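Hey everyone, long-time lurker, first post.

I ran two proteins through the pipeline my lab uses and got sequence/structure pairs for each. Pasting them in order. The first:
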Amino acid sequence: MRLPYTFTSPDETQLQRRRYLLDTYGQVAQISALIPLLAYQLHRSLRILKRKLNTIRSVSRAKEHASPVTSNFGRQLAESQTSSWDRLAWLLDQEVLLGWGTWRVLLVAAFWTMWLFVLAISGTEDDYLHLTKRFGIIAASQLPLHYLLALKSSYSPISLLTRLSHEELNPYHRALGRILLIFLSLHASFYLNFYVQKSLLLKRIRDADVILGLLAITSLLILGTTALARIRRKNYLLFFTVHVALSISLLPILYFHVSHLRPYILESALIYALLILQRNVSQTSTPSATLAR
């Protein structure tokens, strides 16, 4: 039986096309993150507009002295619709499992995982290594967004766009971290399978790019483990120390892993530098503000 993906031997033209598709789909994955953010902003704007229109209609009906029967019916219908939306909003805000976020976060994460998976397999045809590399670059394209979601500042671009606080955005930061871990684990597993199948493991395991790749996936597994709610709440200092140390070290590891990831790594490094700067400013401004009072 023929497997969906095979170990192909592409010529120079096919290698160039593969490189073009890898870079293109990585850019699409990164830019497409704007779509849910803009969709949320549109949804929020429509809710505000609807609220204002309902207020205007209520005032208008009161001025027209509508009949009691019509007023009661309209009020009951409006209350019924509002109640249904309130129940749905309440359900979406319930926690699924301890530390895994609400149903709302879970649904957004599931949608985003499926979208990234579509981008990971589209146009790969039967090229096993193309699929393997695609999982890696798709995951790397999400790193800047992952670091942006960690920004604890009212000037965070995502906070400004969505009007959500750091506490409200943090569950999405954790969810995206799990998605990155899944995609990069698939990337590493597929490569290791290729090396085993081609009897290249003993040779490639000593090369710098493979060593750095294994170091990166190990760091991510440690990050994901220490970020589990049970560990995070039991020993927050351990979680925080590991999180900061590995978040910093992961960027140079990936930077020197392969050159094609470097634009995303540099973007993430810039965001992380802003995060550190913001934390230092907030720590130094707090005592000054206290003295001023």
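...and the second, right after it:
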Amino acid sequence: MPFLRSLALIITFILSISPFLTTATQPGLSAFKIFNETGRLPSGCIADYSSAHDQVLYTVPYTYPQVLSIIGSFANITWNGDNATTLNGSDNTVGTARTYEYYGIRLIETIKTYEKPVNGPYFEDHTIAPAYNPAINLSLYASTNALTTTPVCRGTAVALNFTVDFCATDVGAAGAIFHELHLADAKILQEFLGNETWSGCGSWYGYGAHGSAVNGSESFGGYGGYYGYDSGPTTTPVAYTGGATKPWLGIGIVVVASVAALFLWGLEVDGMY
């Protein structure tokens, strides 16, 4: 029967495009879903997230080997104020992830780069998987959470550089958390080693000496030595197109299907079917 043949064609057409219709009109994929399904972070910041950067520079008056004795293991985060950590691979190895609880929030951090030369600088960079803090309704993830430790003052001190690039639903709140967390890390490390405060390289240094400087007062010391400078978070929204909602595409498909149906109905009326 012509009518049934036309109806069958219309149904076949709509079924063939239904996967595209479903994909096009579904809400943007959450960061958690993307990570759980692919094992990777989203490329850029997805809808409802913005990007930001925070940096904490801090110098401790201890030698490079002394500092590494505390921070030189990815599995050891006691100096971060935490104890229980689980690794899914070998310590200090690219690709290894650590999982732990931080104030009730489950964190998964995966090593991207790990360099630990005998004479420095030490460099460790890891990602932070999507995490959610229900207490303040904050979601975030980070593509870079790096720590560089560089010997300064002829090896009598170490400059710490904490740098994080992240996406968050509230960059102000997230930036403040990262900033206070990294500053606390530096101070706990300092406490573990004896809790002496760095006050500069001293006048003997020859040039760039700042004997009276203290952490938190300036950004750079002479000869490449950092003071404890804390830069605030900066926000630069970054659009992410993957998985974004495209209602116009779904509407277009419906229009095309309707036109096809009318065309076939017209053919049937004219007796061509």
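Reply from user beta_strand_b:
Welcome! Quick read of the second one: The two ends are 9 Å apart (CA to CA). The first helix runs from residue 2 to 25.
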